[in-house]
Design a protein that fits this description.
2 helices, transport, elongated, Translocase_SecE/Sec61-g, Preprotein translocase subunit SecE, 63 residues, protein transmembrane transporter activity
Amino acid sequence: MNKLMQFLRESYTEMTDNVSWLSFKEAQDSSILVLVASVVFALVIGLVDLGFNEALTFFYNAY
């Protein structure tokens, strides 16, 4: 039990003193960047999928 308490104390100290946390503004900016990148990536993948779908539909309907 003593080792568990020591581990918890050391973990708390590590999280409060040694970890550098983002500010709210930095976290917000990073989140917005991830959101925009995800939307752009989804649109690109969607357009590629639509293109393949149209190409295969044209190919299969030609015969």
